[in-house]
DNA replication and repair protein RecF
Amino acid sequence: MFLKHLSLLNYKNLDSATFDFDTKINCFVGHNGVGKTNILDSIYHLAFGKSYFNPITSQNINHDAEFFVVEGTFEKQEKEERVIVSAKRGQKKVIKRNNKAYEKFSDHIGFIPTVIISPADRDLIIEGSSTRRKFIDGVISQSDNIYLNKLLQYGKILSQRNSLLKYFAANHSFDRDTLEVYNLQLSELGQYIFEKRKNFLSEFIPIFNKRYADITQNKEQVDISYKSQLFESSMASLLEEQLQKDMALQYTSVGTHKDDLNFEIEGHPIKKFGSQGQQKSFLVALKLAQFDFIKQISKVNPILLLDDVFDKLDEQRVAHIVALVATNQLGQIFISDTHADRTEAVVKNSDQPYKIYKL
Ligand SMILES: Nc1ncnc2c1ncn2[C@@H]1O[C@H](COP(=O)(O)OP(=O)(O)OP(=O)(O)O)[C@@H](O)[C@H]1O
């Protein structure tokens, strides 16, 4: 699968641009702030229906414009697929595939398998648990639409249950039957999400470990483990046990929305004890494992977006990625970089066809 053609209108700082891409390597080079990352992000937008960097749609519209349009023509299993994402200020975003608008954006997720490696990935290590939940949910959802829909349903019921708890507090009331309806649904969905995440991680972690060992030549031992309250108790029992606390807090304090991942190096949290280089290797391994996992399930090479990696990674890690490109393990790749010479040297080295766009 590859992106053949991209056209942008008023997407962030890009007023109007069109590209005809190579099926292998495409590089965007230019000074800081010219819009290289924004081009990669527009491709991400076609795949996920939102920006990787700024999920607020209206902020992706050029400051001086009323709307943006991103249009991509992909070739997937020898068929041409046209995806258009457009947004107008004050209106709902529209995503179309072959001229037909999606009713549910979630139906589009996974259609254009895509992985991004970016300096912003650092949030996965330094930020709170929601970034790590989003990561695993994103990887699973790209290959499992049922999971994505259950996850969305869970979020909806959770917020309804929280509203109910607030209503009880505001009105000094309690209605066990109504609460029970939410508990039942939340328990079923939570249990499903827990099982899926657990099974996914049992497959994903060995892939990740292998990628980390390849990048670092087996230098140190890293690990990912799944942290969930559901290991101790079923979702239904947790909700029951914590009812008094939830009533006092006026929100649901237990469930899969509290899950997290432990990222460790030699048995210690990588956030506190990993060097910068080890953290970078960890993140690249995580993303390449995402690539492998999606490829294994979808049977196509995901599009790989490499944002600023040459600037932010050291030589050894860059050499590793280039070697992957050279051995043709990857599919179509988009690279952004500030140094034209460096990019050219790297991609020439890979012996693969490429195009360089100077912005
Ligand atoms: N909605 C918007 N309207 C106009 N400009 C925007 C909008 N959102 C972001 N920008 C601008 O886009 C520019 C950043 O573009 P981008 O991140 O793609 O740069 P880059 O070429 O990748 O730079 P670097 O090499 O520093 O990463 C900034 O100048 C930013 O202010």
User: Anything to note?
Assistant: The chain has a mean pLDDT of 94.
